[in-house]
Amino acid sequence: MNHYKPIVVTTQSRTPTVHSDLMELVHLPLITVEPFALDESVFEETYDWLLLTSPNAVEFFMPYIDRVDWKKIATIGRKTSEALEERGYYVDFEPTEYTQEGFMAEFEAKKGERLLYPVSKNARPLIYKHLLKAGCQVDRHFLYHPVENDKSLKDMRTLLKKNLFAVIFLSPSGVRAFQKHFSAFELDGVLAIAIGHVTATALMGFGIEPVQPEKATMESIINLLESRIDWRANNEF
Question: Under DSSP, is residue 153 helix (H, G, I), strand (E, B) or coil?
Fold first, then answer.
């Protein structure tokens, strides 16, 4: 069997590892998160929708979920839905495109409906503004905020010296953390993979041209990587 350079995933794995005989995945979350206390005023309201847009939001909202009066749950994508389903909660709405733009295009925002939206302090405000414009009552509460992971940044420095095959970026905040401590030059010859167009745009602004998998799933990422590894193996002399 050929041995290839390691591939860094700049987030912590939340799902069972996807196995491949062609690569070694190393999870280095450049960003970790710290929770805020939830405003207890939410316990006094009744919500038509509980809107959760990330696995982190699910994790940090779990201590409160049964204390809040909500009727339906909406998510922004499969990973968030899976985090809820694993905990025994049924998801009523999930867009086919796992982005804020996909959510806005497909979710039927009804005037007068009340939504609870616990979210990262750094989340883009697109959905929030869209729902307000549609006449919804939106209680947006900052549930957590991202902070840099010093250990992962140190480990990334060590691995970059070993000539990585690829680095997978899953969020603009991960790109910003990388950009703060490393140069684009340090990714010369390294395949940069972006999950989502916002992450891709952040990388391009940093001077790095990323590639994107067909879907924002680990299986799709693995398929992309395996095709690139096969191509490189067949073209090396």
Answer: helix
User: What number of CA atoms fall less than 13 Å from residue 234's CA on the CB side?
Assistant: 6
Residues 84, 88, 92, 93: what is their CA dihedral angle, to the nearest 10 degrees? 20
The DSSP 8-state label assigned to residue 40 in this structure reads G
Say if 69 falls within a structural domain: yes
Identify which has the larger pLDDT, 131 or 3: 131
Task: Give the domain extent around 90.
Answer: 54-138
pLDDT tens-digit series, residues 39-88: 999 999 999 999 999 899 999 999 999 999 999 999 998 889 999 999 99
State the pTM of this model: 0.67
Nearest to 117 by CA among 97, 98, 100, 96: 100
Q: Which two tokens stand for residue 199?
A: 């992450």
On whether residue 148 sits in a domain, the answer given is: no
What length does the chain have?
237
Residue 80, domain member (yes or no): yes
pLDDT at 16: 41
Let me know if residue 36 belongs to a domain. no
Domain count, the chain: 1
Q: Reduced to 3 DSSP states, what percent helix, strand and coil does the chain have, rounded to the nearest 5?
A: 40, 25, 40
Neighbouring C-alpha atoms within 13 Å toward the C-beta of 64: 25
- Confidence at residue 93, expressed as pLDDT on a 0 to 100 scale: 97
